[in-house]
Amino acid sequence: MAAALLLLLVPPAGLLAALAFLARPRAAQIPLKGRHVFITGGSSGIGLAMATAAAREGARISILARNLARLEEARAAIQRDSGRDDVGVHAADVRDADAVARALREAGPVDVLVCNHGVFVPQELERQDMDEIKWMVDINLMGTFHLIKAALPAMKARTRETRLPGSIAIMSSQAGQVGIYGYTAYSASKFALRGLGEALQHEVVADNIHVSLIFPPDTETPGFEEEHKRRPELTNIMAGSSGGMKADDVANKALDGIKSAKFIVPCNFEGTMLAVATAGLSPQSSPLMAFIEVIGAGLMRFVALCFQWNWFSTIESYYAKNKKSQ
């Protein structure tokens, strides 16, 4: 209460000045031209779109995925669309730490690492097989650990050598900001990435490396239709309000966030509202965004409670209706 009253007494200009002093890490710009960008999940979807866009900006691209044939097709597409020949491809499974380390050694020191790999199978926890849950956690979470741990030593040396900031971008999901029915295992694997990113930013800030967490909504990727076929009916009812995006649009939002060294990178209006609602103790380098978070925190909590009321009401109505029909 005292903090709320204090905010009312402080003029906006004074609050902005205070937030400009407090905002950390300091704002930075991450150039892409002439630098090495390494992207996992780069053979299709968001990863391929990011690789193509970064190549157009003059970056040297390396992409990693499991299927070599699809990687070669992606390389040809990137070369055709960007006019660049220096596109490296690396076939590896991110669950295999040794294979990941070998791919990164072959690729050479990385300036911008984009951990874009991920899998998603929606299902109620009680009905989902534990092997499937472990598969998601191993790829979405452990695969990210494998990549960052293998890339970090050379990335640190690279930032010292070039005196330019580096970036580690981690592709999460709006399901990594809020849990919803049918996403129990998937949300767990994506929420964990936030803890990884927040702690990692503390560990690498002195090395001039910036961490970005990207939170896309449903995105039209090759696996999108299959994922929706597996969704529980109730999940479709509750999540239907979150609009899908084109992979190219998500890629552009993601690259803009990386280049601006933003820690939280939302991809649409709903994502921005979620970012404000879940800001918590996350790093924030933008005084203006910090101002919006401080001023909007109370309102967004009220909006969040309205959403939760709607979701729980939907669940109650759904089960009540199903019981009557039995």
From TrEMBL:
Species name: Miscanthus lutarioriparius
Primary subcellular site in the record, as a coarse category: endoplasmic reticulum
Protein localization: Endoplasmic reticulum
Any one Gene Ontology molecular-function term assigned to this protein's record: 3-dehydrosphinganine reductase activity
Transmembrane regions listed in the UniProt entry: none
GO CC annotations on file: endoplasmic reticulum membrane
CDD domains: KDSR-like_SDR_c
Signal peptide residue numbers: 1-17
Biological process (GO), any one: 3-keto-sphinganine metabolic process
Keywords: Endoplasmic reticulum, Lipid metabolism, NADP, Nucleotide-binding, Oxidoreductase, Signal, Sphingolipid metabolism
Gene3D superfamilies tied to this protein: NAD(P)-binding Rossmann-like Domain
Pathway: Sphingolipid metabolism; Lipid metabolism; sphingolipid metabolism
Reactions mediated catalytically: sphinganine + NADP(+) = 3-oxosphinganine + NADPH + H(+)
Protein name in UniProt: 3-dehydrosphinganine reductase
Record family assignment: Belongs to the short-chain dehydrogenases/reductases (SDR) family.
Enzyme class: oxidoreductase
PROSITE patterns: ADH_SHORT
E.C. numbers: 1.1.1.102
